[in-house]
Structures are given as structure tokens and as C-alpha cells.
Write a structure and sequence with these properties.
Blueprint lengths: L1 E3 L3 H6 L8 E5 L5 E5 L4 E9 L2 E9 L5 H16 L4 H9 L2 H11 L5 H14 L13 H15 L1 H21 L50 H26 L12
Parallel strand pairs: 1-2
Antiparallel strand pairs: 2-3, 3-4, 4-5
Helix pairs in contact: 4-7, 5-7, 6-7
């Protein structure tokens, strides 16, 4: 391992080893290096991510000049200093939709087989041409256009279900790979309102206080709702059923006089 200031002439003068690899360090930027192998020279950046050593490739020395590679290395080292692994970002950007679905299924192993079949059906029927596309390349506009096309061909309910399943997989992948890093944006699959399921209206809450005091000119003015009255009203059907059953049993025992609440 040698230290030198990377310049175009200095990098070109480095001889390739007969076997193995040799790492050279830049004296101008700490963490910036050059990995020299038997066939290639590749710039690298090496730093610490959450207490662990992380090394990532910047690019070939015959493609990038030292000054450009140094700037890219500085950006990668900055990501490491914030706790982000550039290698994870690269893998994430290459993660295809089909691979994301499989990772989702493995992580959610408690999903019912029928639910998994519904997810696979959505991917294979309505998103089949996206299966090999990197998930990070699927844009919000693409999602909206695809939703409109599915709705036109198969109905809005089918389109909503397909996009809802895509959103579940996308948001799961973003959360699993640190949504603040590059490559994923959780808002990307947050669709327009018409994609969302319609909201149900809130159910009415009982009768007490339902009408205003001046709505009944026949004497309802000044009426206040009584919680105890509402409580008694809730049990009226139950008491009526109990009394009816008692009457039937009493009649079956010989037509005796019905006495509410009497034991039979």
C-alpha cells in the first residue's frame, strides 16, 4: 500500500501487479484510493458507516480523471459520514419490481396464500412490462398513466387494487432501505384522490340530541337528551323479547295468567 497525490501522470505511471491487487492512497483526500489489479485500475472510496468499514467503487481510471474521481469520492464519503452505505444505494437502484415483490413476500411470510396470489396476479397481468424495470425508475406519472389505462380496460376497482398492491410493495421497500437515501421516494406512489378508495360516511350516533330544540313546535322546545332514557331505549327490544317468550311458555303450560318477569 502506497501513498501519493493522484494526478493523471502519476496514475498512468503505476504498474499493474503480476497477481492480486494493490491499494494506493491519495494524500490530498483521506479515504480516496486507487485499486490496481492485473487488468484494471479503479478509484475507490473507503470510510466508516455505523462503525463498520465500507468500501465502494467510484469508476475506472481510464474513464475518470483524478479530479473528477476525487469529487465523486468526496460525495461518497459524505454519504458514509451520514450513516448511509453507497453500496446499498447502488443495489437499491438496481432492484427490479419483480425482485421487490419477492422480497416483500419473504418479509411478510404471514400473508395468506390467497393474498399472495392476488399480488402476483396484479404484477403478472397489469404490471408485466415493469417486472424487469428497476423500482427506482418507476415514476409517479408512470403510475398514474398505468392506473388510467387499467381502469379503462378492466374497471376502476381493478385499477385501484393493482395500484394499492404496488404501493404496498413500494413503500415497504423504501422503508426497508432508508427512505431518506437516494433511489426511493415514498411520495412517488402516493396517488391522486381518485385512486384512493372512497371514504365511508360516518354513521349517525343515536337519537338523543338529533333534532334542535326549535324543530318541534308541538312542545319539543327545551327538551334535553337524557342519557338514562337512551340507555333504557337500548334494552327495550331485549325486554320485549323476554316478555314475549315468557308469555309463550306460560300459554304452553296451560294458559295461565301472564305475569311479566315471572319465573316459568
Amino acid at each position: 500500500m502506497s501513498n501519493l497525490r493522484f494526478t493523471k501522470h502519476a496514475v498512468e505511471a503505476i504498474q499493474r501487479p503480476a497477481s492480486g491487487q494493490v491499494i494506493y492512497r491519495d494524500t490530498q483526500l483521506r479515504g480516496f484510493g486507487l485499486r490496481v489489479g492485473t487488468k484494471s485500475k479503479v478509484y475507490i472510496a473507503e470510510g466508516q458507516v455505523n462503525g463498520r468499514t465500507c468500501r465502494t467503487s467510484i469508476g475506472r481510471a481510464d474513464v475518470f480523471c483524478p479530479d473528477v474521481a476525487r469529487k465523486l469520492a468526496l460525495a461518497a464519503l459524505s454519504e458514509m459520514a451520514m450513516g448511509r452505505n453507497p453500496n446499498e444505494v447502488k443495489r437499491r437502484e438496481k432492484l427490479t419490481l419483480e425482485q421487490a415483490f419477492e422480497v416483500f413476500f419473504k418479509a411478510r411470510d404471514s400473508l395468506a396464500p390467497q393474498t399472495v396470489d392476488h399480488y402476483r396476479r396484479a404484477m403478472n397481468l397489469y404490471l408485466f412490462d415493469w417486472r424487469s424495470k428497476p423500482l427506482a425508475e418507476i415514476t409517479r406519472q408512470m403510475v398514474l398513466v398505468r392506473h388510467q389505462r387499467i381502469a379503462k380496460q378492466h374497471g376502476k376497482a381493478t385499477a385501484n387494487n393493482a395500484m394499492r398492491q404496488l404501493r404496498s410493495v413500494y413503500n415497504f421497500t423504501a422503508a426497508a432501505h432508508d427512505e431518506d437515501a437516494r433511489g426511493f421516494d415514498q411520495d412517488r406512489c402516493r396517488l391522486l384522490p381518485q385512486v384512493e378508495p372512497p371514504r365511508r360516511r360516518a354513521r349517525r350516533q343515536g337519537r338523543p340530541g338529533r333534532y334542535p330544540a326549535d324543530a318541534d313546535p308541538g312542545g319539543a322546545a327545551g327538551h334535553q337528551s337524557d342519557p338514562t332514557e337512551h340507555h333504557r331505549d337500548r334494552h327495550r327490544p331485549r325486554r320485549h323479547l323476554r316478555n314475549l317468550l315468557a308469555a309463550v311458555l306460560a300459554h304452553g303450560d296451560g294458559g295461565g295468567r301472564f305475569r311479566p318477569g315471572a319465573k316459568t
